[in-house]
Structure to design on (411 residues):
């Protein structure tokens, strides 16, 4: 009887203890779904490496993936560092990019082209065609001719026949969307013509006046270049006309840009300017008018506090950029890191650790890794996350309307 009573007391005590046990509850980590497609720098590239790591530098995903295909990945983090690596066989170098604290919900990563691929569509084929401009006013100097549906490597022949007041143009015409543009700089006149056949005659007795524009520029510039495209149809950025490019022989040096006074629905202006500090200012505008002020950025917009292997630190005394980047260009690797202006301190050595253990770069000598380029990016009113969501949106119609970038080589 005593044994049974003892056993009963032990059971009661055990059950009482069980009721008082409290185990801490754990919340499962938040996850993110990433949909990503990678367009390679080199057309012959078949694979790229995608690495995703968290804020503690722990690798969450690392795999070789096919280029030009959509990949869906679930990550146990709401914000993460995303790295891509590609081997560029043409340059015999690895090309890599790291986006710090990013959210790549739905990205098609394309090469970052300052001209946003405007005016460089890959159009091939077409028929041999001719234009005959008649009743051309007498002029001196050069003519400037361009057309939409530009084909890299194709030849356009422009032959003035002054005795007959004619200009003959031979070109490649893809279809009836081809638009021809003729400017006579010495007269300040232009003619835009929508072709209707492979052999058009154009009456040039009535031409329109161009607009001449001179910009206010910093006194420390050592060179400048401007490229201007025009679109009659703003729904097709593959059918633009080059309206102007810096060429003193054709246009002289009196004006910075010359363009049509009407007939153009949207203009894309790209400018490249170098200063005596070794920096480059890149400007682009896509708008219904040619910009009247280029809003220059220079090296007074930032201060590099530290550039060490384990510490890059930056300050922005004037205005914060949309984002900034630091780039290494060493013997076998070009690697850019993109960051929000809120991230004023970066430890490059942590990123190098991940690169060194990647599938593509494991065994490669990265001892010469060094930050040797700083870039300041200001784009529309976008912040860091908004900019890349817009730039890498799978819809190719998305364009950055206004971009101002300043690049400085570091010692």
């Amino acid at each position: 009887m005593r044994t049974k009573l003892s056993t009963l007391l032990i059971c009661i005590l055990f059950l009482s203890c069980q009721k008082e046990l409290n185990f801490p509850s754990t919340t499962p980590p938040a996850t993110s779904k990433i949909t990503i497609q990678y367009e390679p720098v080199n057309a012959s590239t078949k694979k790229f490496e995608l690495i995703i790591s968290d804020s503690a530098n722990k690798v969450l995903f690392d795999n070789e993936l096919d280029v030009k295909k959509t990949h869906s990945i679930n990550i146990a983090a709401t914000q993460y560092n995303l790295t891509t690596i590609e081997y560029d066989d043409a340059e015999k170098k690895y090309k890599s990019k790291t986006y710090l604290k990013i959210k790549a919900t739905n990205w098609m990563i394309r090469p970052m082209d300052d001209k946003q691929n405007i005016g460089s569509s890959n159009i091939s084929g077409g028929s041999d065609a001719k234009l005959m401009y008649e009743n051309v006013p007498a002029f001196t100097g050069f003519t400037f001719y361009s057309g939409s549906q530009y084909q890299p490597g194709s030849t356009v022949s422009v032959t003035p026949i002054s005795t007959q007041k004619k200009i003959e143009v031979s070109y490649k015409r893809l279809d009836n969307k081809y638009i021809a543009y003729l400017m006579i700089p010495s007269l300040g006149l232009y003619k835009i013509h929508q072709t209707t056949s492979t052999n058009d005659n154009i009456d040039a007795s009535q031409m329109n006046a161009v607009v001449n524009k001179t910009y206010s520029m910093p006194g420390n510039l050592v060179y400048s270049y401007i490229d201007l495209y025009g679109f009659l149809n703003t729904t097709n950025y593959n059918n633009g006309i080059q309206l102007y490019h810096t060429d003193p022989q054709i246009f002289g040096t009196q004006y910075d840009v010359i363009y049509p006074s009407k007939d153009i629905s949207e203009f894309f202006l790209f400018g490249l300017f170098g200063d005596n500090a070794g920096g480059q200012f890149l400007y682009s505008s896509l708008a219904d008018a040619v910009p009247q002020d280029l809003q220059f950025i220079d090296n007074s917009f930032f201060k590099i506090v530290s550039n060490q292997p384990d510490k890059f630190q930056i300050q922005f005394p004037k205005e914060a950029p949309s984002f900034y980047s630091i780039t290494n260009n060493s013997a076998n690797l070009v690697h850019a890191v993109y960051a929000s202006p809120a991230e004023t301190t970066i430890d490059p050595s942590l990123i190098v650790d991940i690169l060194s253990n990647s599938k593509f770069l494991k065994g490669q000598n990265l001892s010469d890794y060094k930050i040797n380029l700083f870039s300041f990016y200001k784009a529309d009113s976008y912040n860091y996350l908004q900019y890349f969501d817009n730039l890498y949106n799978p819809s190719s119609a998305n364009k950055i309307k206004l971009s101002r970038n300043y690049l400085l080589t570091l010692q």
